[in-house]
Write a structure and sequence with these properties.
The protein has about 725 residues and is mostly helical. It contains 36 helices and three strands. A hairpin with a 6-residue loop joins strand 1 and strand 2. The chain starts with a helix and ends with a strand.
């Protein structure tokens, strides 16, 4: 029988007749060695070397001409100046390098990188006086840039000129900088063991910056110097200066209330630090007295933090072993009173649940959750739409249920109980009035973790059936099946969703994206065709935009153009015209490789034609849509300016400017009143002929202005002049 492969003309494998080993064996190493020996050497460019001074001068002249040309073209580019100066520096011509830097600073002296690199060049080549000159000029011209001061001081300190560094710090402090400048000055003094100087600086610092942080830092400095009495004196003076004997009065405005709150925050921070200092010194009674003073002086909003610090003190140094239990009971009693007063205060329930979770008692946590879920939010029985505040309460209630389920799954390690919790809240919510997508998704994820795929599909199917408008649930269901590789099931889900709600634009777009990801472009196109043929869509503009973007991404310019034409047959919105013109002006994906001058000119012509059509349509069919027409003309003008590369003398720019309307000011009566109001209206060039009194009124206004200016122009002379220079017209309309 004839072989099938031979009959089809396919190559046949050669048969080995002699299967004995060859007398001469060739190894892989030998093959690689032969290949390397036969490989040609890679040609390297020749290395040019400068042999004498004439060649060096010629090379330098060439580079300087190149840099000067670059500087002439890109005067505002810092990179060009930097490269130019570095080149001169590499040639050891420092005078020229300084000249380049000075020229760059003349262009933009606010560029901090220019100053930094200029000074670093001088320091790198050990021109100390020149570097000082640069830094001095920098801090004089730009005193609010801290980096210049830090660099200047660092240079002087590296040179051992500590006195000069102090002078620079003093100059800097005259500009009232941030606290970092004071700290840097103090650290420098401490590096040279100038403790007294540092103490004087701290005194100046707290006098300038009277804040709790400044006083606390001063006291810590005294503690590091092992001067406890001085540190205590600092804290006492801080309390006297910052807090005093009086409490601020009740605020009358928002700004005053903010200032009072900041005062209390500073006082709380200072008193807590003072108490911590006394604890560190072993003065527990003094610390307790400070805590008592803070609790009696500061408002109740700061009490929790102070009480926590006091409890920590008692825990560490007190005699009672039940401090922690007492605090827990106190907080629990507080939250229980809140939820007893208002069972629907779910924020208090959250606090109580978190308190019990900190205790770690599983049964107590579960009983708390079971108690809170017995208090669902009240809801009106009229069957209408739910109010916003009621839905917010339901949202907090549902979050409590979700936290209950997460507790059963994570802390109690009972996934079955967690699924029961999810089923309980799902059965409680009236899904016909409202629902929560997060709840359905969390319940489905819990079933997935139990590997119950049929139960997950049943739950998600129920969710989509009850809530066809919840796109998050539908997206999760489709993504779930897509991850399992069930493409046909994804299509059935989306088809079922569309059969129930054909007005959902998000569902149509999701379906088309699915087919597009599967590289089923024709199916995606057919789905989008069906979508745009629907009589009603909740967001038709999203569908049209997605369809056009899809065709542009596929490189189908003609189909995208046809879609724009079809869209214009349905709506004449100005944004559609502008988007259509932008589409015609820009190259799409498959045109980038062949984007030559001829293609660009063709795109410009097509875009211009779209702008012409849009302007003609708006002026002819919708003459009252003046604001839309102005928006179209502004977009057209921007397009022509870009096409003409910013040339205002372009023919098309002038033509578009000629179509621009004039904005005139008019007056009219307010409806149902005798009050006149001013309003602005656009008058297009084709409407100017229909207003015979316009030029007369403009000429009269211009004559009146000239008369007030004392020019003495006659009225007939003003009437003979043109009226194009009058920016606004002021008339009165009866309507």
């Amino acid at each position: 029988m004839e072989d099938v492969g031979a009959r089809r003309g396919l190559p046949q494998p050669s048969r080995v007749k002699d299967k004995r080993p060859a007398p001469r064996q060739i190894t892989a190493e030998q093959i690689v060695r032969d290949a390397r020996s036969q490989q040609e050497e890679i040609a390297k460019p020749p290395v040019s070397k400068i042999a004498d001074r004439e060649e060096l001068a010629e090379y330098q002249l060439k580079k300087r001409r190149e840099f000067e040309d670059l500087v002439r073209r890109m005067r505002w580019s810092p990179g060009v100046w930097t490269k130019y100066a570095k080149f001169e520096e590499s040639q050891q011509d420092f005078e020229r390098a300084r000249s380049v830097w000075e020229r760059a600073l003349e262009v933009d002296y606010r560029n901090r990188s220019m100053w930094l690199k200029y000074a670093e060049m001088e320091m790198r080549n050990r021109f100390v006086n020149h570097a000082r000159n640069v830094w001095d000029r920098a801090v004089t011209l730009l005193p609010m840039i801290d980096q210049f001061w830090y660099k200047y001081i660092h240079m002087e300190e590296m040179l051992g000129n500590v006195a000069g560094a102090r002078q620079i710090f003093e100059r800097w402090l005259k500009w009232t900088p941030e606290y970092q400048a004071w700290r840097a000055y103090i650290k420098m003094e401490l590096r040279y063991n100038e403790v007294e100087r540092a103490r004087k600086l701290y005194k100046r610092y707290v006098g300038c910056c009277n804040t709790a942080d400044a006083w606390i830092e001063f006291a810590k400095f005294e503690m590091r110097a092992k001067q406890r009495e001085n540190a205590r004196g600092v804290y006492e003076k801080a309390v006297q200066e910052l807090i005093g004997d009086l409490i601020p009065p009740e605020p009358e405005g928002i700004e005053e209330e903010k200032n009072v709150q900041e005062f209390y925050d500073e006082a709380s921070k200072l008193l807590l630090a003072f108490a911590s200092f006394e604890i560190l010194c072993g003065e527990m009674d003094r610390a307790r007295a400070i805590y008592s003073f803070a609790l009696h002086t500061l408002p109740s909003s700061h009490a929790p933090k102070i009480e926590a610090a006091r409890v920590a003190l008692e825990k560490q140094y007190g005699t009672s072993s039940g401090v922690e239990v007492a605090v827990l009971i106190q907080r629990r009693r507080k939250y229980e009173e809140q939820v007893k007063a208002d069972p629907h205060d779910y924020d208090a329930w959250f606090d109580l649940v978190r308190l019990e979770e900190q205790g770690g008692n599983i049964e107590r946590i579960r009983s708390t959750f079971q108690e809170v879920v017995q208090h669902p939010p009240p809801m009106a029985q009229n069957g209408g739409s739910i109010a916003a505040h009621d839905k917010m309460r339901w949202k907090r209630f549902v979050y409590l249920w979700i936290e209950y389920a997460l507790f059963e799954e994570i802390m109690a390690d009972d996934l079955t109980k967690a699924n029961q919790v999810y089923r309980g809240i799902i059965s409680m919510i009236p899904h016909k009035r409202f629902t929560f997508a997060k709840l359905w998704i969390n319940a489905a994820e819990a079933l997935i973790r139990t590997k119950d795929l049929p139960g997950t599909r049943k739950l998600l199917g129920q969710a989509v059936g009850l809530n066809p408008s919840k796109t998050k649930i539908l997206d999760f269901y489709v993504d779930f099946e897509l991850q399992l590789g069930n493409i046909s099931r994804c299509r059935k889900i989306l088809e079922s969703a569309l059969s129930r709600s054909q007005t959902s634009a998000a569902t149509w777009i999701k379906f088309s994206k699915l087919e597009s990801e599967l590289e089923e472009d024709e199916r995606a196109r057919a789905i989008l065709d069906l979508a745009i043929q629907q009589e009603e869509l909740d967001s038709p503009e999203l569908v049209w935009k997605h369809y056009i973007d899809f065709e542009i991404q596929m490189g189908e310019r003609e189909k995208a153009r046809a879609l724009y034409e079809q869209l214009l047959s349905r709506t004449s919105h100005v944004k559609v015209w502008i988007s259509y013109a932008a589409f015609e002006a820009a190259p799409i994906t498959n045109e980038l490789e062949y984007d030559d001058l001829k293609s660009r000119e063709l795109r410009v012509l097509r875009a211009r034609e779209v702008f012409k059509r849009g302007h003609s349509y708006l002026r002819g069919n919708e003459p009252h849509a003046k604001h839309e027409c102005v928006a179209l003309l502004e977009a057209w003008e921007s397009f022509e300016m870009e096409a003409a590369q910013g040339n205002n003398d372009s023919v098309w720019v002038k033509e578009v400017n000629a179509l621009m309307p004039r904005r005139v000011k008019r007056r009219r009566l307010v409806e149902d009143s005798d009050i006149m109001e001013d309003y602005y209206e656009y008058i297009f060039p084709d409407e100017a002929a229909a207003l015979p009194n316009l030029k007369l009124l403009e000429a009269a206004q211009r004559w009146k202005r000239q008369k007030l200016a004392g020019e003495g122009t006659r009225p007939d002379t003003a009437l003979l002049e043109g009226a194009n220079d009058v920016p606004e017209e002021k008339t009165t309309d009866g309507g």
